[in-house]
Amino acid sequence: MDLYARVNIMDGRSVRLPHGNVADAIVLDSDPLARAQSWVEAGADRIHLVDLDAAAFREYGNRPLIDEIINALDVPVQVAGGIRSPLEAQRNIDAGAWRIVMGTAAIEDQNMVWDLCRDHPGKIVVSIDVRPDGEIATRGWTMNSGRYLEEVLIEMSSAGAAAIVLAEAGRDALEDGPDLRLHLEALEAVDVPVIAGGGVRNLDDLRDLVRLQAMGRGLDGIIVGREVTSGRFTVEEAKKVLIEIPADQLTQEIIETPKVPRSLAKSEAAFKKVAEELERAAAAAREAVKRIKSSDVDAAMSRGLAISGHLQKADEVLSKIAKRHAFRDDQDD
Q1: What is the CA radius of gyration of the chain?
Q2: pTM for this entry
Q3: Which end of the chain is more exposed for a tag (fewer CB within 10 A), N or C?
């Protein structure tokens, strides 16, 4: 598991957001590069760089500074904030970003995500902000998307996202502990690497996240920031936690997850496969509509063939599920 260190940049300075609101930003220093370098020297595995001006105001004056930081560091840097178009995604990747992180744009324009994941495999990360009821929040927690965690996870997994950054909308990381069940749900829903992006209060919270296991895997990484800068713990202490949890002290210590019977587990996996194929069909249909609007009928028809293929695969899986359960009912009789 990797430790990501967050560097928030606003107006060329490093800032902290006490409650996730740029209006409350507190300036930490005027040298984000030095801050990023200090994180690396302390032992951070990755840097999570957030351009708050681009995210909140669509102002991109920090981009030259971000390019400088990317090229100055010896660890991978993933860039977040204001990446809303293929052009901006390409620009950051060309500048040397290890990966780019998309938030609202990914939720609202699924076609773009599919295209970017196809054009830049392994480079596109999707950040998902989840409310307590599972609904996805967008536009800096100010809007409700009407969509929920599992469906978005399956969609982004099908698109080919390199990872998911999972955060809890409205949560104050220094006051409230992480929602372990939420992270466990994400691990169970898809095979895509999941990164805990909401921060932790202390080392105990960090240990709880490290212990989480589902489907034979745990979280891929954890992003920390102000819990370190405010003196709750050090990077060195956090790194020790990442490697100190023995295999026999994983999920069951924190959350008693009911065991699913093997027959039902097969059905669960099959229905997930159906959902993935239907999502691929839906994405191809959206692309076909876009092609028709641009008068590219041949391309639209080719998308139609793709839709048919995905629907056929979904139907085949559903038929297998029906046969399996029919056989089980006969056995019960």
Answers
A1: 21
A2: 0.76
A3: C
